[in-house]
Amino acid sequence: MDEVTDVGGKQDGRKSGGGGGKRRQVAALPWRGKGDDLRILLVSSRETRRWVIPKGWPMKDKTDFQAAATEAYEEAGLVGVIAEQPVGEYEYLKKLKSGAARLVKVDVFPLEVASELAAWPEKGQRTLEWMDPVEAALAVQEPQLRDLIARFAGVELPEEERPSPHPAPTPVRVALQRLRRRVTALWGRYRR
What we know:
single chain, alpha+beta, Nucleoside Triphosphate Pyrophosphohydrolase, nine-stranded mixed beta sheet, 9 strands, 29% strand
């Protein structure tokens, strides 16, 4: 069984190396309940509004699992107990500001959620939703993350129920979405 620590714990653990050309991120897999009551929390990404789990870059002076717990707090206001060892990893294409994409590997640390805060740094920037494990697995775009969620929850995903992944949005679509949000924000200020 993996060792766990409180989110705010100061225990030593593995830190991400800064060398090598590989891009790695850390993520929390928020969960609560047991058996038929098991739920997984997904958050929407800020740019594409896809369902994802809280993730980010490793942090200086924090172990990977502590950084993953910090991401869960910042993106979803979650507090709980996080495993010190990852349950698995997945890859995805990270869209860069230049419009290019880079392959990133993500280490995933299960986070048993003890409480949800009323306020957190990215509140209002993302949508949060608790889902049953099958629903959560089928909601994410990345096939490796889908399989990781199913494995973690101990559920089977029949091949016919797996939707084909939606293609990632083009840089033009992302730019248009950003422009639409800016225009909407400016219009709201103008109307006041």
